[in-house]
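Usage

Read records sequentially. Each one opens with the input sequence:
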Amino acid sequence: MKGYLKNWLADWRNILLHEMKEIFHDGGVLLIFLVAGLAYPLLYNVIYSNGILTDTPIAVVDDAACPDSRRFIREIDATREVKVEAKCMNMQEAERLMQERKVNGIVYFPRDFGERLARMETATLSVYADMSSFLYYKNALIATNFVMLHEIGQIQMERYEFAGMTAQDAYQTTKPVLYDDNNPFNRAFNYSFFLISAILMLIIQQTMFYGMSLLVGTQRERNHSFASLPDRLEGRGMVRVVLGRGGAYWLLYLAIGMYIAFIVPAIFGIPQRGQFGEVLALLLFFITDCVFFSMTWSTLITRRESVFLIFLAISPILLFLTGCSWPTCAFPKFWKLFSYLFPSTFGVQGFINLSTAGGDMQAAGLQMRAMILQTIIYFFLSCACIYAENWVIRHKEKIEEKKAELVRRAGIDPEEDARIIAGD
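and closes with the structure output:
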């Protein structure tokens, strides 16, 4: 037993060192792991550093021309979010200003706005925003909603007073409970605070997967195997190969992950309200999950350049599936089930619950259990992939013989086909 354990650890160490050597001898993999892994978090924070936009220019079309609409316009103009840049006679003029990029939004008051309020009916107004930037939409909507809520209270008080209530009674009826709106860690509704926490954890998963897949694709192009076992094991020993290869990525990303989860938020002043030990524990589970996830799916990569096509296609989808921009309860069933395939779905949610929201391990308990289950499943899938790859290696000659036999039975002449393809 002692000799077996000694051999097992020796094999594991050799496989780990061999994988480390492969990583540090591949310039593309180093570019993804070190440059992208270290630079992307900084780059995204710089891009979204101006998450606060003030005085967004908007146009107003006031077909109502009543005291209520004019008061609404004055209050919108007084908000921090928008500035009334132009008062237009009609929508065509306002649309022209938006097309010329002189304004980034339009507020339209229909002709019956004042009449409906006077008849104590529901009045409507319309808000149009330039969706070339989410910040334009956010500012136009927030400014209009703030003023609308204030106006609703004022209109209710006027109607109660008209019905015979005193001003004090009307005020107490419309505002039975006074409250003070306070957002201590994001007073200006900085958009980057909502997004960066999700991006940081997604970077860990994506760079690990693409770097590992790039290495697998390179080895296959060179007719090497990512799953080579020592000859004396005779096809056994999948666990030590999985843990040896995985250990190399785990050690590397332990340092990268701590840099992304702790140092980058501190540099850019992103709130870190969680306990260091709890966030670190989540990070360790997430990195372990990402290692086996990447090892499983990277086995499908046959060409080096395939990785970059996957990168462009899947990254925005995975960011959306984390639920940072849309509630997961509103996901269609297919997309909700599809999101369970990826560690980022649970890693991002757990990181936000701990680091951004300031919860404890109980708040991230569901995500932790999901990552543990994912880790177990992907570990066994990784072992199965290693076993399948080694089975193909050990039976390569027999497989080629079977292929040749099937070709002969089908009446196909490979040499003749090669001449035809070559144009001879």
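Summary fields computed downstream for this record:
- The mean pLDDT is 81.
- The beta strands are 56-62, 82-88, 105-109, 126-129.
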